[in-house]
Design goal:
heterodimer, A: 285 residues, alpha/beta, Rossmann fold, six-stranded mixed sheet, four-stranded antiparallel sheet, B: 271 residues, mainly alpha, 2 domains, two-stranded antiparallel sheet, 2 strands, 2% strand
Chain lengths: 285, 271
């Protein structure tokens, strides 16, 4: 059987060695190659801490994290692991190192010692994949938030990683920037088969994933396809999370007595279900 | 107001001076400074001024920028020339004598030469920053200092620090403006009051600025680690500086011209 992209086994981590509470409290999970996984959870549930385990920024206190079979604790594999699992953080300003877009995209390759002749092509490819090729000679501080975040993504995918970990990468962006970044990420996932682990607060983003994990108190408490997770509106709310607006609307309509099917999470599905309901003679008076 | 601040102002252009290898420009600038102080005769200084005017002309940098760059050091120039004027004693009859003040012709000569030299110095080094972008300049400094890495001088680290500083100047200026507005909204008086009051008013701006800068540094360090940063060892570059034939030609021309200036000192010492 093929190795999973990421595998966590009973991962436990706390920030202080004698703290009574664990930031990550026994998490086991697999992320397959090419999969798009969204991790949801209220503030302080340990989702960012968990994300930092995926490329050996943090090491588990007990349990293991395997990246394509490599244990993150093995120091010789550190750069291999970081090259395979690229990480994008929340604040685009604090991830961009260089004063010109293309130089920043090249930063990781410069660190890895990629020869100059090869670098040019990889940098151009990465900028095209992230849709910022036209901005290559601009200074980062002249770009919008969404563009900056795509520069950060390009800087990571220039390493040609197999997996992208997004730690609330869209949290600081305006709706338009967020949409552009999400589009880029979906494209990287579908066209280039890069696995994505997206930690997010936005239910609409999570609804686009293949699989959703809900974390609370350092543990994974719910897991399944977006449909399976978001149809349990009451349970999702109990973890201090919202559900997508479409699911919420469906819930309210069911409460009001309309026979709507389960598993409605996107606006389109909701519209179709309502349309079907309205066409059915006698269903609405 | 704050966004006007630029460090090492750069005027992009496409002249020979702009396109020249930045390493060559740094070396020529240093050589120019040396020549300026070695050829202390009026002819030599006049020639070096002419050379400078020529370079400004070729680079199409407006001459009024020289005045702008001189503005901050004008008091220094005035102060030193006044000191020179009164404290240089020479032979011959004093031009002017009153109480304890005496001015000799040698004093005047020295004061004028000294100030012209300082002006040429500033104008010359400004030309370097006017025609070279800070990023390219940083690359050039790193490349020029590389031999010293063998002596355990942290060359790569210095260059990286300069790059990061350049990268974060606009970000932090932006942030300062935001903090100032936030404090003003809470009733801070930043623009008026006595000198000591205004200094005190800076504290509530600087503390948040520092805290945020440290937080940024922390996140940046993590982001750099995620992109496999591990110091300068085994690093390659996207753009390598190339020393072309044109650069060689420019270098030779510059060496000849500076040589001529220096020669005037030896050949016609009287002037």
């Amino acid at each position: 059987m093929e190795q999973p992209m990421l595998r966590g086994q009973e991962v436990k981590f706390r920030y202080e060695p004698d703290s009574p509470t664990w930031a990550v409290d026994g998490v086991s999970l697999d992320v397959q190659k090419g999969e798009f996984v969204a991790v949801l959870g209220a503030n302080g549930c340990g989702k960012s801490t968990l994300a930092k385990h995926f490329n050996a920024i943090l090491l588990p206190e007990t349990g293991t994290v395997l990246v394509e079979g490599m244990d993150t604790r093995i120091e010789e594999k550190l750069y291999d692991i970081r090259q395979r699992v690229g990480m994008v953080f929340q604040n685009p300003d604090n991830q961009i190192v260089a004063t010109v877009v293309e130089e920043d995209v090249a930063f990781a390759l410069e660190n890895l010692g990629v020869p100059t002749e090869e670098m040019r092509g990889r940098v151009d490819d990465a900028m095209r994949m992230a849709g910022i090729y036209e901005k290559r000679e601009k200074a980062p501080h002249k770009l919008s938030g969404g563009q900056k975040q795509r520069v950060a993504i390009a800087g990571v995918i220039a390493m040609r990683p197999d997996c992208l970990v997004l730690d609330e990468a869209t949290a600081m962006l305006d709706p338009r920037g967020r949409e552009a970044v999400m589009q880029t990420i979906r494209r990287l996932n579908r066209e280039f088969g890069i696995s994505v682990v997206a930690i997010t607060h936005y239910m609409e983003e999570a609804a686009q994933a293949d699989r959703v994990l809900v974390m609370s108190g350092g543990r994974i408490v719910m897991e399944g396809t977006p449909k399976q997770v978001f149809s349990q509106t009451a349970r999702v709310r109990s973890y201090r999370l919202d559900v997508p607006q479409a699911a919420e609307l469906r819930d309210e309509l069911v409460k009001a007595g309309l026979p709507l099917p389960e598993g409605i999470i996107t606006p389109n599905e909701c519209a179709e279900a309502l349309f079907a309901l309205l066409r059915e003679p006698g269903s609405c008076q | 107001m704050l966004s006007d601040i630029t460090i090492g102002q750069h005027f992009p252009g496409d002249s020979v001076v702009h396109r020249c290898d930045p390493r060559l420009k740094i070396i020529v600038t240093i050589a120019y400074i040396v020549v300026l102080f070695m050829a202390a005769n009026p002819l030599g200084i006049a020639l070096s001024l002419g050379l400078l005017a020529l370079l400004y002309g070729v680079a199409k940098i407006p001459y009024r920028l020289i005045l702008k760059s001189l503005k901050p050091i004008l008091p220094v120039i005035l102060f030193t020339s006044i000191l020179n004027l009164f404290f240089i004693t020479g032979e011959g009859t004093p031009l002017f004598h009153w109480w304890i003040f005496t001015i000799y012709p040698a004093g005047v000569r020295y004061a004028v030469l000294m100030s012209v030299r300082v002006v040429a110095l500033i104008a010359g080094t400004s030309l370097l920053t006017y025609t070279t972008s800070p990023i390219v300049l940083t690359d050039a400094i790193e490349s020029l200092l590389r031999p010293f890495a063998k002596l355990h001088l942290p060359v790569h680290e210095l260059a990286m620090m300069m790059t990061i500083a350049l990268r974060f100047i606009p970000t932090l200026i932006d942030e300062t403006q935001k903090i100032m507005n936030a404090q003003k909204a809470r009733g801070a008086k930043l623009d008026n009051g006595k000198f000591t009051e205004r200094i005190q008013a800076l504290i509530p701006i600087l503390i948040p600025l520092f805290i945020s800068a440290f937080r940024r540094a922390d996140e940046l360090a993590m982001a750099m680690e995620c992109r496999c940063y591990h110091g300068g060892e085994g690093r390659t570059r996207l753009k390598n500086l190339k020393f072309t034939k044109t650069d060689l030609l420019c270098g030779v021309v510059a060496a000849l011209l500076l040589g001529c200036v220096l020669a005037t000192r030896l050949l016609v010492p009287g002037l």
